[in-house]
Amino acid sequence: MPRSYSRRRARKGGDSAQIIDLQTKVEKIEKQLSDVKSELNSLEKQDIEASIEKPKSDDEEVEKTKETIIEDPSDNEEETKETEEIKEKEIPLTQQKIDVTGFQGSVEDAMRSIKGKMRQLQKPSNKGRYDDKANKFKQSLAEMKAAKSISDIEEIINKTPSLNFKNNKLMGGKKTKKIRHRKGKKSRRP
Fold first, then answer.
1. What are phi and psi of 169, to 5 degrees?
2. Per DSSP, what are the bridge partners of residue 164?
3. Contact indicator for 121, 130 with CB cutoff of 8 Å
4. Largest Cα–Cα distance of the chain, in whole Å?
5. If we measure between CA atoms, which residue out of 132, 160, 130 comes closest to residue 147?
6. How far apart are CA 181 and CA 65, in angstroms?
7. pTM for the predicted model, two decimal places
8. Cα–Cα distance measured from residue 131 to residue 145, given in angstroms and rounded to the nearest whole number
9. Nearest to residue 165, comparing CAs of 104, 102, 98?
10. How confident is the model over 114-130, as pLDDT tens digits?
């Protein structure tokens, strides 16, 4: 017989009513899970059937490959630039990645760290000492929100000296100097 650490439960025989309730709940959950899995399988089958298209004729495919071979490489470079611009327009500006000195990540992360630093500087415990620094952050944040492209945002971060990133964290704020009293050397008087 296994050792029971709770003597009271060992005498009563355990909480069999609770165990039965839990078992019924587990069975209900397993049944719901199997229903969800069957629905997923049916949806996947529908997607597969919808994705099957009519096969294209070989002539059309040959013509398209000939056109791509005949094109100049300079045209391809222009097309890639255009496609990159289109991709930038498709992805929201806040979710695009930037890479500036000390920061690599999305624009939203940079804006979030600036907001956090503003809150830190505007704490009541600072007694308004850093309001000017917080206002600079607020102004640069407004410029970032008004920016239309990634290059504009990178330029704003690089031109603003108060936006100093280090290891993806915004550094800055004034440091308070502690007054330390040093004991001077005792002079010997003859």
1. -120, 145
2. 171
3. yes
4. 112
5. 160
6. 81
7. 0.47
8. 21
9. 102
10. 999 999 888 888 888 88
